[in-house]
Amino acid sequence: MAYLIGACLALAVSGAATLIGLDRDRAFYPTVAVVIASYYALFAVLGGSDHALMVETAVITVFLATSVVGFKYSLWFVVAALAAHGIFDALHDQLIANPGVPVWWPQFCLSYDVVAAGYLTYLLLRRRAATHS
Length: 133
Known about the structure:
Blueprint: H1 2-20, H2 28-47, H3 50-72, H4 76-95, H5 105-131
Helix pairs in contact: 1-5, 2-3, 2-4, 3-4, 4-5
């Protein structure tokens, strides 16, 4: 169920951003990627683990840097960051002991990340096709 909810929410948020026009600004998806990555720090705080917070912050920094590069140079880096975060979600409990992470979160976040990456890919390919017509 967490997979389905994550995927549906990603489609709803991304679709609404397109309908409203929020994603016309290239800052939208880099911001989404940073916010998504930051939740693990929140969970570390909720779990009361300073060690998890330090490790999660190091990982968040990588996603933040990739998102900044994506914002400055190419949104394809943001696609990669979102997809990579989905992979990170799948492996998270094997990599980092974070007692605050809800049991359902990795599945939810993985599906959200992958669908958001797919949606952004669709937008980038559609824009590329429109400029080549």
